[in-house]
Amino acid sequence: MAKLDEAGGCFACGSKICRFSRQNGSHSKRRTINLRRGERLEACRDGCIKLWTIVSGTAAITTNLRDGRRQISGIERTGSTICGPMAHEDSTTWLEALEPTEICETDFSEDMAMLQNDPAFMQVLFGVIHERLEAANRHLTTLGRLDSTERVTLFLAEMAATADKPGPVNLPMNREEIADYLGLNTETVSRILSRLRKAGLFKFLTRTEFVVLDPEAVARRLPVRVARRPRTLFATDDTSADPGSCPVPYPLPQPSEQT
Amino acid sequence: MAKLDEAGGCFACGSKICRFSRQNGSHSKRRTINLRRGERLEACRDGCIKLWTIVSGTAAITTNLRDGRRQISGIERTGSTICGPMAHEDSTTWLEALEPTEICETDFSEDMAMLQNDPAFMQVLFGVIHERLEAANRHLTTLGRLDSTERVTLFLAEMAATADKPGPVNLPMNREEIADYLGLNTETVSRILSRLRKAGLFKFLTRTEFVVLDPEAVARRLPVRVARRPRTLFATDDTSADPGSCPVPYPLPQPSEQT
DNA sequence: CGGTCCTTTGAGTCTGTTCAAACAGCGTGG
DNA sequence: CCACGCTGTTTGAACAGACTCAAAGGACCG
Description:
Two copies of one chain form a homodimer. Helices cover 28% and strands 22% of the residues of chain A. By secondary structure, the first copy, chain A, is of the alpha+beta class. At the A-B interface, strand 5 and helix 2 of A face strand 5 and helix 2 of B. Chain A binds a DNA duplex (30 and 30 nucleotides) through helix 5.
């Protein structure tokens, strides 16, 4: 058995999903993958179920249309879990590391027949996918109804809000990747970043590191609230595991506010 | 007990979810709701879990930003099931009927403690939410990377592909609703519809009924494949229930093609 | 027949894209 | 150490697509 922390995840990846993987015997299906920037994980094809949890780093869920256009549908950061089957029939989708990224992969393909009868597992799986749906809907609205300035502003605010550590925010993406996430193009992103910098909202220390100078002004410019990091799957460092919150390893998401 | 059809759904709504609702005793939590155009179902607030299955008609999942901008994140048609907790902290989201719509509501709030230990139920729940995530990601790419002509073309093609019955396609939305779905504005939608009509791709019988004249040309103009109706939850009319496909009521979606 | 609501069409404006060029950072090799 | 080239970024000018504002046209209903 792998060591489990108090919150029910293993120390390797902090996720609450990997504890369902086989730990002993020849079928141990869990492994750690280290990706360098640009390296990809493709969704496997025939009927396998893999889950990836970001242990550290940042990765993009990327879709390519057949004529080369690209859309990043999600930026996944430390602690978030991606559920395998992401390939559409037609366009290609994969997970791509934006910086050196450590991923805990659990392959449930062989165990699926058993696990789909395990309610605890199904609850975790539901939680994972529900979180992604929420994020997708938020981003949908961003692309449909916010103008380019609002998109970039929201993007920076969310990168700041989901940062691992306090202090200057790490921005492990180039202009083209930001553009592909926001449905814009490189030059537009660059122009808007310059404008936001001149407006005194953000300060760029380097091209990949910035500080939010005026959070109130940022919030005032946005017609939506900035999404915070989802309820922490992680029982990281000091904040030692939310104590005995619920009997199941991952609570079914409910429409409650926990502002 | 309610009558079950061969596929495991009840006759009332055809969904495979409602069979988990209590059928007898005082707690029967299933009801049929008839909405007229414009009427809404709000996601309930405090910790309740409701699922809505569209028995007939069309409804839109609609989000309002605080400054009045509106985004329709999904068009839900006969057979699709919506999972309750859709409200963000900030903006308001609801389900709105676009035409007279019959909805089968199942409220699992009281049964949740029990049902979340029922793997069959969790599998269905997973299936429901997974289907919505797929749709959300497709639409995300549409909004991020397709131009207005492509969006409208794709929209019409998908309305045709998901229509209940063959023959002229029913389009139960006005121009503003189409615009809110596609991230455009009313006039743009109208202009593009005119252009597509003149190009001989579609023919409008009335303002809310059209025919796809040239499906090949439509497909050629699009950089993505047109999404078809998801694997039929329904064992409707003649096609009597896909025979013994899998032992569980709803198969776990797998990254398999079934073109 | 008149009124209302939705749609269509036009003219002008603005936002974001395209194309092009200059610039900055950085590693390599002389 | 500096020159060079590569890559990604910034900025500008011209263009195009989508939006705004406005007005006319249709459909429907009392």
